[in-house]
Design brief:
Shape: globular
Helix content: under 10%
Order of helices and strands: EEEEEEEEEEE
Number of strands: 11
Largest sheet: 7 strands, mixed
Radius of gyration: 13 Å
Structural class: mainly beta
């Protein structure tokens, strides 16, 4: 059973940093795309970062380039999202996602609130 469990959300002031973690289980971790997206009520879901298998390419949304970094620890089956220089517009629910075997899965999300 595929499971993705996010942790590390919280509240921070603008300019601060947070690190999200996503513990993955139930699938071949190294052969799936792993990524993060965020959702604000009333707005479209936004893909934030995607790690492609093999580590050859990482996608970042323009809105987070230079501020967010995603990485993975294969030994721990965990993906991270390091978020620096946070802005109020980064406030959202953040979800970890994966596509093992071409099927999409996501976690239950963790909330980030950035105050000005």
């Amino acid at each position: 059973q595929v499971q993705l469990v996010e942790s590390g959300g919280g509240s921070v002031q603008a300019g601060g940093s947070l690190r999200l973690s996503c513990a993955a289980s139930g699938f071949s971790y190294s052969s799936a795309c792993m990524g993060w997206f965020r959702q604000v009520p009333g707005k479209e879901r936004e893909g934030v970062a995607v790690l492609y298998p093999g580590g050859g390419y990482t996608y970042y949304a323009d809105s987070v380039k230079g501020r967010f970094t995603t990485s993975q620890d294969n030994a721990k089956n965990t993906v991270y999202l390091q978020m620096n220089s946070l802005k109020p517009e980064d406030t959202a629910m953040y979800y970890c996602a994966a596509d093992p075997g071409g099927s999409g899965y996501c976690g239950k999300g963790t909330r980030i609130t950035v105050s000005s």
